[in-house]
Amino acid sequence: MKFALSVVAAALTFNTSVSASTADDPERITIEGQYLSINESNSVKTPTPIIDVPQSLSILTAEDITERGITSIGEIIDYTPGVNTSQGEGHRDSVVFRGVRSTADFYIDGNRDDVQYYRSLYNVEQVEILRGPNALLFGRGGTGGILNRVSKKAKLDETFTGYKATLNTFGGYGVEIDTNTDMTSTSALRINAMYESLDNHRDFFDGERIGFNPTARFELSEDSILDVSYEYINHERFIDRGIPTGADGRPVESLKNVVFGDPENNYHELEAHVFRVNLSHQFNDYTKANVNVFYGDYDKVYSNFYASGYDADTNIVELDGYIDETARDNLIVSGNLISEFSTGGIGHMVIAGTEFIRTNSDQFRLNPVFDSTGNDRETFFTQRPLAFSGFSGINAAGEQVTTAFTALNDDTRVTLDVASFFVQDEIELSEHLDLVLGARFDRFDIEVFNAKAVETRSRTDEQVSPRAGLIYKPQENISLYASYSESFLPRSGEQYTDINGSDNQLDPDTYSNQEIGIKWDFAQGLSFTAAVFENEQSSPQVADDNPETLDVINSDISGYELQLTGYVNDDWRITANYSHLEGEIVDRSGPTGRTPRELPENTFSVWSTYQVNDVFGVGLGATYQDESFINNGNSAVLPSYTRWDASAYYDISKDLRVQLNIENLTDELYFPNAHATHQATVAAPLNAMLTVVGRF
């Protein structure tokens, strides 16, 4: 049997949560127990101590996010073991969980958040990253892992206002506000809001993000709590898909300042309205229930031109492009019951739940048609800027050319219904031995109207996903575990459009994870974790010869992860991560022994903070990523890199802090990720961000 293990990240041995005393100090935190989350909306869905969870996971709190100057999901991933970032075509979060790339395995308070965009962090209490298949708790997807944001909730009997303002050396800036008011003794209102003006080191880049999230909490009785939330999201930004690779398969460093796109037609826009309602009821000391309703309405458009080919000898680049629109609404109704009881001296914590999802998703894509070629591709001399802007330019032959988005690539209208039921039992066999057993049943009904082909296709998939784990605790501060889990992805893919042709007859892809690990709280406030794992997976990935299409790639990936996290002493805190990944493509035509794309063999990160005195502290971090392949053909490479980061903060008063974060201290030129062979991301050079954070 092939086993897998991994690491539990920040706050592995305990949950860090902000107590009432935090109102006097926005950065000081109080330890309040050994649980994953400060509320019941957490990734494992049961109040289970982290040391007893037979799975690799990582947690970053809102305090960590502020302290490190983190402004994006990608920056969290940089300091998380076993995962790395992908480019996401310049318009979406994209994470590679243990070699499985995903743009859909994102959740907010346990609800699926699968529309492709860059997620904000202004309203999160903490971010939780689980690695390995997670179908039992989350259903389809979750094939390599999931990322769950736990949102800030209104707090009863508290009144406070917190704020944060940032300014970076590129000229970008942002402001956030977090205010909570107790309306009555049994109700409270909390409002989180943000505005961010975007800028970076690349030509033409700009954009803005707006977020507004009021939440209310009502104590209906001593045992019942109702949380209501609305979020308005409005994002827009320039799309930059990076630079080409040369004859040696590596990004062409001399082109680091060239943007291969149209300054007028490379953009992304998203507007969304998201409603969340959660009702929890405590029946007694041992039984609790939750009912959750989630509704999201999303309108998104992204338009882009990008490098699809490059000839280093002639310095000629080939451009391709498209415009894509998505209108989606998700309705999710879920509920679960958690009960603790004993039978014959054996303890049980049982969670049983159900979920119903209705998704309507309309999407279409138009390709450009160049008047010179009659198709969607044209060549230009590489220069800064390119001789192409506003649908016209001078091609490599010196001819005036024009283009427009007139060729319909696809137009699909999707209706998706999912019905699920799951049950899991955490069984305390003895004082030292626990067993976790569970399974989930999903029925996945999809109907796709293909307007281009004027045909309707539908299919139904029914899937059972098991999970099992064994935890041995020789003493209270040490756990050894072994686990097995499965997940699946229907052939419709992450975004529900790929059901044409023979895909209509194919079964869902199935993913399995085998893992063994140790979690050891060996000193006061300090924890070491380690894990070894193996995944077998089949996943849709960008085709090497056409970044607009997907190939299904079967691969085996194994590895191990190590982490040390916590307080060395009262003033010194450290988090250090290491992961080693190996993979092989097992059933794709071509040479054997090839490595899956974007799978760095070694990654390492460390972040350390030191409290110099009562008002001044410093931080230093580094992240290393081994070289990896850009494509599955292994013909293009992302070079390895090491990036150093630093921070310093000064508490002007108990309610006001000034903080400086510096990224890429050594000003290294590096390429952290890519989307296709000629689309390698150029990372930011040395830059700094000044932050003022406070509370009144």
From TrEMBL:
Xref: InterPro entries: Beta-barrel_TonB (IPR000531), Beta-barrel_TonB_sf (IPR036942), Plug_dom (IPR012910), Plug_dom_sf (IPR037066), TonB-dep_rcpt-like (IPR039426), TonB_sidphr_rcpt (IPR010105)
Domain named TonB-dependent receptor-like beta-barrel: residues: 215-665
Signal peptide: 1-20
Membrane association type: Multi-pass membrane protein
SUPFAM superfamilies: Porins
Protein name: TonB-dependent receptor
Top-level taxon of the source organism: Bacteria
Location relative to the cell: Cell outer membrane
Keywords: Cell outer membrane, Ion transport, Iron, Iron transport, Membrane, Receptor, Signal, TonB box, Transmembrane, Transmembrane beta strand, Transport
Domain (TonB-dependent receptor plug): residue spans on this chain: 50-146
Main location: membrane
A Pfam family of this chain: Plug
Keyword Membrane: yes
Keyword Manganese included in the entry's annotation: no
Family to which the UniProt record says this protein belongs: Belongs to the TonB-dependent receptor family.
